């Protein structure tokens, strides 16, 4: 910055009782050094000049381009409503698709549950071998005489394992060689796939077998 600062008259520090050379003080500070310093600083501040063009440069810096602000797109109310409606429709369509009557898959019924029973022949001589003389009959009808002609569905032997599906308790009574009687008949399938009725006296079953539904026997 330009300008001159007056330093006033110089104090010679002699024995003259604090006199200032060059005449009396113009700032009226007297002999007080602090007052003299304040007066000189005030006078220096008044003499400081503003550099030329300073205010023009300040104004030019204030008028620079403002930072660009990108405005985000605003969603219109009907656009928001359409979006919500589409989402709700999609959810409802999915629920309808899952719960429509045709969506229930019907699994094919598996084979009925069976219980394993073992054939028992009361004749000791027929407990080994598989001769025709030792074969036991599977009947077609549990309510018909066991030995009736045409009431044979197949043959089984002592020790054969059969799959019993169900049992009837009111079939034709059968007596074995030891005198044991029973009206129970088991609907069975042999290992060779032969299906028929086995009299209760031809097994020593100890497992629970469900009763046959109506119309099976």
TrEMBL record:
Transmembrane segments: 78-99
Region (Disordered) residue spans: 1-38
This protein's record includes keyword Membrane: yes
Keyword tags: Membrane, Transmembrane, Transmembrane helix
Regions of compositional bias (Gly residues) in chain numbering: 11-21
Protein name according to UniProt: Uncharacterized protein
Native source species: Streptomyces auratus AGR0001
Phylogenetic classification of the source organism: Bacteria, Bacillati, Actinomycetota, Actinomycetes, Kitasatosporales
């Amino acid at each position: 910055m330009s300008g001159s600062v007056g330093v006033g008259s110089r104090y010679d520090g002699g024995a003259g009782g604090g006199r200032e050379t060059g005449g009396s003080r113009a700032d009226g500070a007297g002999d007080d050094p602090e007052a003299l310093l304040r007066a000189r600083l005030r006078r220096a501040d008044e003499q400081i000049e503003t550099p030329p063009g300073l205010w023009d440069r300040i104004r030019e810096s204030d008028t620079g381009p403002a930072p660009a602000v990108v405005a985000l797109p605003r969603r219109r109310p009907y656009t928001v409503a359409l979006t919500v409606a589409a989402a709700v429709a999609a959810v409802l369509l999915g629920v309808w698709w899952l719960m429509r009557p045709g969506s229930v898959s019907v699994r094919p019924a598996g084979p009925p549950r069976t219980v394993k029973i073992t054939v028992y022949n009361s004749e000791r001589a027929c407990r080994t071998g598989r001769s025709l003389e030792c074969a036991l009959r599977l009947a077609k009808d549990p309510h018909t005489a066991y030995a009736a002609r045409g009431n044979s569905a197949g043959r089984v032997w002592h020790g054969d394992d059969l799959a019993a599906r169900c049992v009837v308790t009111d079939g034709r009574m059968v007596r074995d060689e030891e005198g044991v009687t029973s009206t129970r008949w088991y609907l069975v399938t042999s290992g060779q796939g032969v299906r028929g009725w086995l009299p209760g006296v031809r097994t020593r079953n100890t497992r629970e077998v469900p009763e046959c539904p109506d119309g099976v026997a």
